[in-house]
Amino acid sequence: MIKQDDVIVVFLRSPYSPQIKTRLAKELGENDAKKVYQILVDKILGDVQKIPDVDKCLSLDTMSVQDVKWFSERGLANGWVIFEQNGFCLGERMHNTIVRLSSLYDRILLVGSDIADSTSNDLISAINRLESQEDIVVGPSADGGFWCLGLFNSNIDLFNGLEWSTSNVFSGLRRNIERLNLNCKTITMRRDIDTCYDIGMTTLLS
Fold first, then answer.
1. Helices (H), 81-168
2. Can you give the pTM of this predicted structure?
3. Cross-strand bridge partners of residue 57
4. pLDDT at position 78, please?
5. Alpha-carbon span 42 to 70, nearest angstrom
6. In what order do the strands lie in the sheet with 135-140?
7. Which residues on neighbouring strands pair with residue 168, listed in sequence order?
8. From CA 152, how far away is CA 98, in angstroms rounded?
9. pLDDT of residue 204
């Protein structure tokens, strides 16, 4: 049910996916890496849950009965919409999600699930910085990617040519934004949790 003008979409892998935190799994083992992922997911869902006056969605890479049950057990049944991503690569899935929601909402904020040091205030700041149709808001991550993305307009291809899973993602995204004559606004840089080093750095910085 559409209640608000703005929506926050948490972009997630299934908690049962074998592709969860593969780099971290090499250091900690698969079971502990999945536990870290679940902690990160619980944190971002909790942060989003605190934000008033926005609709809230989960966008899952797969959506089995098991997946829906796992998320529903985290208290998300009340008001959250869960839907499956559509597309072959991350950029295509993100673009299709934006297109899907742009006819329903004025402002859309996509948020990843790999960040331990983001806050509800970061997300509120991102939405509030979307002031015109030409604005794109990006939260850069310390590894050269980005952890959130906000915009109005779905009729643009922000993700063309991006080198996913490299340190060039944010710089490539910024070039695309400039090429499209849009305004790139950034919020606080945060750190992806991909390795034990990232966990340690986040602990030190928190």
1. 90-102, 120-128
2. 0.91
3. 9, 81
4. 66
5. 11
6. 80-84, 55-60, 6-12, 107-111, 146-151, 135-140, 183-186
7. none
8. 9
9. 45
d(CA 5, CA 26): 42
Give me the domains of the chain, ranges plus CATH numbers: 6-205 (3.90.550.10)
Count CB-CB contacts under 10 A for residue 32: 13
Look at residues 33, 197, 17, 191 and name the one whose alpha carbon lies nearest to residue 112: 191
Residue 163: other Cβ atoms inside 10 A: 11
Task: Give the separation between CA 148 and CA 188, rounded to whole angstroms.
Answer: 10
Predicted local confidence at residue 111, as pLDDT: 97
79-98 as b/e, with b when 16 or more CB fall inside 10 Å?
A: ebebeebeeeebbebbbebb
